[in-house]
Design brief:
By secondary structure, the chain is α+β, with helices and mostly antiparallel strands. The protein is built from seven helices and 19 strands.
């Protein structure tokens, strides 16, 4: 089943559809869940999915399906990506956090401040939606904890990644995680490791890979993550991206104001997001004692004078 959140008569409503393809919008029939039922409710198992006998809708397009809890990013998980970068295959999944505040839905703008970053890159990914709590889950039972799948783009500020030596700012800026347009239940995706993954910028295909190229597959990722963290219903696992990111092109390429970004995973859906450049507000004035506290914590200017810590690579 394809599940979406629609704006119908000025209200957000959960809707479902059984169909052969992921495309949605005017002319594609959805059936509405009862008012007040959300996708979060269905994922958590406290409400049933929309019934085919529900009110039909054909004149509404999906918005952000739901607001995820924790987003777990996986880096360096496609063989063609690793080959493109000339690196070695990791011995275990490379984990990083993606902030929930970075999530936007279809049609919303990816916004960046050029004073903060000028190397804004794309990473279309298959996103796994967790449906049952997972802690110390063996690989053989990991798929029992999957509710379904959606599309994500792990937008990345490569200059911040390189500068920081870790990925929190570079991956976590506001609007840097388009997600949607639908969530497809696991039973409607026979094999998540046989899906085409594509990115287009202004209609030009820049990424065209397949989930068959993953180093660590979905069961391995869930089992590995659950050794360290409790995965809860609604959490999302971003499974990595294939070759073709702009920062690794020659010459490098970055998203610019006015670009249109399309993120597509076969059988799941296609996200379309405009890209906008904006200026951030002024930095807040430091409060009394802030400078001393920063010096004690190692986060102020004194820390900047210390020898640099070896940086993580600014890749995917």
């Amino acid at each position: 089943m394809h599940l979406a959140t629609l704006v119908h008569q000025s209200r957000r409503r959960l809707a479902g559809r059984h169909g052969p393809g992921p495309e949605s919008g005017p002319g594609h029939a959805w059936y509405l869940a009862p008012p007040g039922v959300t996708l979060e409710d269905v994922i958590a198992g406290v409400a049933p999915p929309p019934d085919p006998d529900g009110e039909p809708v054909t004149d509404a397009a999906p918005v952000l399906p739901y607001r995820p809890g924790t987003l777990h990013g996986i880096g360096l998980n496609y063989r063609d990506t690793i080959a493109e970068m000339g690196w070695e295959t990791p011995a275990e999944p490379y984990l990083f956090p993606k902030l929930a505040s970075s999530v936007i839905g279809p049609g919303e703008a990816v916004v960046f401040d050029p004073e903060l970053t000028r190397r804004v890159d794309w990473e279309t990914e298959l996103a796994v939606v967790i449906g049952a709590e997972a802690r110390h889950v063996p690989r053989a039972r990991a798929m029992d904890h999957v509710f379904g799948y959606t599309v994500a783009n792990d937008i990345s500020a490569r200059d911040l990644q390189d500068r920081d030596g870790q990925w929190l700012r570079g991956k976590g800026l506001d609007t840097f995680c388009p997600l949607g347009p639908v969530v497809v239940t696991a039973d409607a995706v026979p094999d998540p490791h046989r899906l085409r993954v594509r990115t287009r910028v202004n209609g030009e295909t820049v990424q065209d890979g397949t989930t068959a190229d993953m180093v660590f597959r979905v069961p391995e990722l869930i089992a590995h993550l659950s050794r360290f963290f409790t995965l809860r219903p609604g959490d999302v696992v971003l499974t990595g991206t294939p070759a073709g990111c702009g920062d690794f092109m020659r010459p490098p390429r970055a998203l610019r104001d006015g670009d249109v970004l399309e993120s597509e995973v076969e059988g799941i859906g296609r996200l379309v997001n405009p890209v906008r450049e904006t200026a951030a507000g002024p930095e807040p004035e430091p409060r009394p004692g802030d400078r001393a506290a920063a010096a004690r914590s190692g986060s102020g200017p004194a820390a900047a004078r210390r020898p640099a810590v070896p940086q993580e690579a600014g890749g995917r």
